[in-house]
Amino acid sequence: xxxxxxxxxxxxxxxxxxxxxxxxxxxxxxxxxxxxxxxxxxxxxxxxxxxxxx
Length: 54
Description:
Largest sheet: none
Distance between the termini: 15 Å
Number of strands: 0
Order of helices and strands: HH
Strand content: under 5%
Helix content: over 70%
Structural class: mainly alpha
């Protein structure tokens, strides 16, 4: 993780995604859509934590 990463913000983003997934699952959203959201969140990880250009 890059030293300049705002860890609290990253944690907040993923907490929000998890909360949203929980609500959508409760409301009957198809598992394919939930899985797609998880895939997007995983793909976002590198952009959030990798070191920027030097």
